Amino acid sequence: MDGLSGLLFALVAVFVTSCVIKLFNGLQTVNHIPGYRPPFTPFGFPGVVLPTRWWNTGLDMHFVRRYDMYKEREYMSLVPFISGKPAIWSNNLDVAKQVEAGVWHCGMLFQLQIGCTQSDDSKTSLWGTNLAASNGEAWRKHRRVMGPAFNVKLYRIVWEKTREIYKEMVSEGEWATKREVDVDPLQSITYKLALIILGTCGFGLPGSWIKQTHDAHYQLNLFMKEQIELRRSRISDGQIGSSSEGDKAAGNNLLNLLVQASEDEEGKYQLNDDELISNVFLLLLAGHETTANALAATFGYLAVNPHVQQEIYQHIIDTVGHKDIEFEDYAKLNKVVSAFIEAVRLIPGGHVLIREAAEDTILEIPTDPRFDSEGAKLGRKQTIPVKKGTEVVVDMIGLHRNPRYFEDPEEYRPSRWYDIPNDSELFTGFSVGPRACIGRKFATAEAVCYLTMLLRDWDVKPLLRSGETENEWRGRCLVPNFSLTLGAANIGVKFIRRPQA
Question: pLDDT digits over 245-259, tens only?
Answer without folding.
Answer: 444 444 566 667 667
